[in-house]
């Protein structure tokens, strides 16, 4: 085994890869290098071009830089095949080891594109080079992408394969499977798999915290809470927060407050998540003003609201169509030194969309761009559909341009609506330009959008341009058939039994 020169193992962390590595303050030169390498990934189309461009760039490919480049690819939906070439090329250097963050992010990128055979190949390569490279978090990243398109049975079969890949196939890995099923499938699926496999692993506090989160009925959560105590596992704040959450979602606010009392009796201080659940529950029973009062009440206990707590209170007023109070809370947030995030703005975009308020939507969007807050995909869809309804081509093109430049939102979803608008308005040149921009990002336009543009180009006798677009589409190969892809996930590795 070669001695590690660059990589430091990351501790187990159940967060998605974007939050595994702490925010780094990169120098301007480092940022320039990240942008340069990212540009090479986006502009080259073959492995040889990639290698030559990287060699001639003069950029030192450190672990830190690779982490940042892969993170950029993930959030910009970059070309997965070329990114994999980059990952393997950098990993072939003598004595070099990728960080756990790099490996998990690369696997996430492949999984999102459903390149499952490449995932297993990469896992085997990583295991061969370093027996400790694959962690419980890696298990969750891979299973999370598999569970999105395949059945519970196939997800569990994939989990079993990790027995020969993970250095310590223990309760942490079991918890990764349960968390994946609870997030991507259902709490019932997670519960059933727990009961079928719990005799092979020793459930711990984290196991029950996973199973207690997200229940829709208090009865189900109470059952696991009882089993937890019978096994001698002591609840913590996370456990109690799950109970508070399920009671609030079930509109049983009195029970939720009783849990708060029990926490204090056990010298466990409710945290900001506890109060955020209470705020959301009060909103569900139509008491937004009382929920706003919780923001003040929690301060008296030494717990200060964060952005999520304010978002919960803002959501209550948005549901009640009291936008004045929602705006007031957002400004209060800012005055406390808290920056509204994409979720905050999305609450307003939702209201503006359903009230057909184009002007307010546009003003909110411009505010976000000034503040440097990037939209999430849902906000992009609210905006582009509103632009489509009002036939606002310039606004739609500005949104698209910002998406391409800053790397936010889903190109595939937004482009379908955008191309509809451009084609209906006869903006063929603009549609062609957006089409090429999307392809250059490694994103495949839908076949429906391509057919619409193709018809217009044929009518306009743009045969050369159409041939170019057709060649671009051919780069993506045949459309993926999901119902046929699932069995391929189980290839390349023998199915091991217990």
From TrEMBL:
Organism in which the protein naturally occurs? Sphenostylis stenocarpa
PPR repeat copies, ranges: 236-270, 271-305, 306-340, 376-410, 411-445
Which spans of this chain does the record mark as coiled coil? none
GO terms under cellular component: mitochondrion
A GO term for molecular function:
mRNA binding
> Matching NCBIfam families, A to Z?
PPR (TIGR00756)
Stored Gene3D superfamilies: Tetratricopeptide repeat domain
Which family does the record assign?
Belongs to the PPR family. P subfamily.
Q: Which domain of life is it from?
A: Eukaryota
Q: What is this protein called?
A: Pentatricopeptide repeat-containing protein
């Amino acid at each position: 085994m070669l001695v590690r020169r660059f990589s430091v193992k990351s501790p187990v962390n159940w967060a998605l890869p974007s939050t595994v590595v702490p925010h780094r303050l990169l120098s301007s030169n480092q940022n320039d290098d990240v942008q340069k390498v990212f540009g090479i990934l986006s502009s080259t189309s073959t492995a040889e071009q990639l290698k030559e461009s990287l060699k001639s760039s003069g950029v030192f490919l450190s672990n830190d830089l690779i982490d940042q480049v892969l993170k950029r690819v993930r959030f910009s939906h970059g070309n997965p095949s070329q990114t994999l070439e980059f990952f393997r090329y950098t990993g072939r250097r003598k004595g070099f080891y990728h960080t756990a963050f790099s490996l998990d992010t690369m696997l996430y990128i492949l999984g999102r594109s459903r390149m499952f055979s490449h995932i297993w190949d990469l896992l085997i390569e990583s295991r061969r080079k370093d027996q400790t490279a694959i962690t419980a978090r890696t298990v969750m990243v891979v299973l999370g992408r598999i569970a999105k398109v395949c059945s519970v049975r196939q997800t569990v079969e994939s989990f079993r394969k990790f027995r020969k890949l993970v250095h310590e196939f223990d309760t942490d890995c079991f918890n990764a499977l349960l968390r994946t099923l609870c997030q991507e499938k259902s709490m019932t699926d997670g519960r059933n798999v727990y009961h079928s496999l719990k005799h092979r692993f020793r459930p711990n506090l984290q196991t029950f915290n996973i199973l207690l989160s997200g229940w829709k009925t208090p009865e189900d959560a109470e059952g696991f809470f009882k089993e937890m105590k019978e096994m001698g596992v002591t609840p913590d704040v996370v456990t109690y927060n799950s109970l508070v959450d399920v009671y609030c979602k079930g509109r049983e606010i009195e029970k939720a407050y009783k849990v708060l009392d029990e926490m204090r009796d056990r010298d466990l201080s409710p945290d900001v998540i506890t109060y955020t659940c209470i705020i959301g529950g009060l909103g569900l029973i139509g008491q937004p003003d009382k929920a706003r009062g919780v923001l003040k009440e929690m301060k008296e206990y030494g717990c200060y609201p964060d952005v999520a707590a304010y978002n919960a209170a803002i959501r209550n007023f948005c549901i009640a169509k009291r936008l004045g109070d929602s705006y007031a809370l957002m400004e209060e947030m800012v005055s406390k030194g808290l920056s509204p995030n994409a979720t905050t703005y999305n609450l307003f975009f939702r209201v503006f969309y359903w009230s057909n308020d184009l002007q307010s939507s546009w003003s909110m969007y411009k505010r976000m761009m000034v503040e440097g807050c990037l939209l999430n995909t849902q906000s992009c869809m609210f905006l582009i559909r509103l632009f489509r309804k009002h036939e606002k081509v310039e606004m739609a093109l500005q949104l698209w341009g910002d998406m391409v430049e800053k790397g936010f939102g889903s190109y595939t979803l937004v482009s379908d609506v955008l191309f509809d608008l451009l084609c209906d308005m006869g903006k063929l040149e603009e549609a062609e330009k957006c089409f090429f921009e999307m392809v250059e990002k490694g994103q495949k336009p839908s076949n429906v959008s391509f057919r619409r543009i193709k018809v217009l180009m044929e009518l306009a006798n743009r045969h050369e341009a159409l041939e170019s677009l057709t060649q671009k589409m051919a780069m993506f190969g045949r459309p993926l058939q999901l119902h046929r892809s699932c069995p391929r996930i189980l290839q390349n590795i023998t199915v091991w039994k217990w």
